[in-house]
């Protein structure tokens, strides 16, 4: 039985999958199995996987497309290792990731998972130093030390400092929370880490860049944004931090903020009634923000005009580091 199970869910990315797979095969620690879960890709993913003659690789091809979360789940359910990591088909591990994280897990049985910092890379596999530093600062990774994490619930829920793709878990702790919830599709990583923290698990952080996270060119679609926001609202509505009134207050504020953003996206898409309904729910709780009032007003404009208005707002908004990397990669 392998000590570590590594799962790479993939869909229609035969061109970049080798980058992720080779990053696993080049690990300095070799006691692992690599499970590639293919969600019925219409490209030549099967042919690409066939090029590797390594008994540690297991290839699961779904007979039909079962969507992201269920495809991920299939790899988790097939995993035989004591430790488990899942990362995306466009990302990569640095050569010593397993060596460094497994060593901590082996030496400290009270640690349930180990997370590391990561590089930001663009679509050309290039590391962006400035974007990496900005990303670490934005999510608070730069203030975490090489130690067990204090107040894990605050780090995962408020700061969102950790990332599943750069985290090695004990599979036993994932079983206790039933791994990923399908209703959280799109933000299942955030949801998993919060639920582990709420269950009293112990996380350890290594402040080294031992993983590569890719920023692609282009922007997400309105449909994708709405799907993600709806999933995250589901997550926040399911949490209760009764013993942490500070976090419960933050939960309510985050939930209202997400509902406002979702209302704006729905109005931009043309689902005006749903957008106005969300704004009415927010109004029942207190004064509306200027942004919510603007969205409400725009909802009465013809669809073409309101979409032009939203596009105009985006053009005058300053780009952050992630948008700069994505646009440079196009």
TrEMBL record:
Segments forming a coiled coil: none
InterPro entries: Glyco_trans_2-like, Nucleotide-diphossugar_trans
GO molecular function: hexosyltransferase activity
Entry superkingdom: Bacteria
UniProt-listed Pfam families: Glycos_transf_2
All copies of domain Glycosyltransferase 2-like, residue ranges: 5-121
Name of this chain's protein: Glycosyltransferase family 2 protein
Annotated organism of origin: Leptothoe spongobia TAU-MAC 1115
Classification lineage: Bacteria, Bacillati, Cyanobacteriota, Cyanophyceae, Nodosilineales
């Amino acid at each position: 039985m392998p000590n570590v199970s590594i799962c790479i869910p993939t869909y229609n990315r035969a061109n970049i999958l080798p980058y992720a797979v080779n990053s696993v095969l080049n690990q300095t620690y070799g006691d692992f199995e690599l499970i590639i879960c293919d969600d019925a890709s219409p490209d030549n993913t099967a042919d690409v996987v066939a090029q590797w003659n390594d008994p540690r690789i297991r290839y699961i091809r779904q007979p039909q497309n079962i969507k992201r979360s269920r495809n991920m789940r299939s790899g988790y359910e097939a995993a035989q290792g004591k430790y488990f990591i899942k990362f995306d088909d466009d990302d990569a591990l640095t050569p010593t990731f397993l060596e460094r994280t497994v060593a901590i897990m082996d030496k400290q049985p009270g640690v349930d998972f180990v997370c590391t910092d990561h590089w930001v890379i663009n679509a050309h596999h290039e590391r962006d130093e400035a974007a990496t530093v900005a990303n670490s600062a934005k999510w608070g990774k730069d203030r975490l030390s090489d130690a067990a994490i204090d107040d894990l619930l605050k780090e995962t829920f408020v700061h969102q400092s950790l990332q599943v793709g750069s985290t090695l878990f004990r599979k036993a702790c994932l079983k206790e929370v039933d791994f990923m919830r399908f209703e959280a599709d799109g933000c299942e990583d955030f949801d998993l880490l919060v639920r582990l923290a709420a269950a009293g698990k112990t996380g350890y952080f290594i402040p080294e860049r031992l993983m590569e996270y890719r920023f692609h060119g282009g922007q997400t679609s309105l449909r994708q944004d709405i799907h993600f926001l709806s999933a995250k609202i589901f997550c926040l509505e399911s949490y209760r931090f009764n013993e942490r009134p500070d976090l419960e207050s933050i939960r309510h504020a985050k939930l209202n903020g997400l509902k406002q953003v979702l209302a704006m996206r729905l109005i931009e898409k043309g689902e005006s009634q749903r957008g106005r309904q969300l704004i009415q729910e927010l109004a029942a709780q207190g004064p509306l923000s200027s942004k919510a009032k603007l969205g409400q007003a725009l909802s009465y404009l013809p669809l073409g005009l309101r979409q032009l208005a939203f596009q105009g707002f985006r053009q005058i908004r300053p780009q952050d580091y992630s948008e700069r990397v994505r646009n440079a990669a196009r």
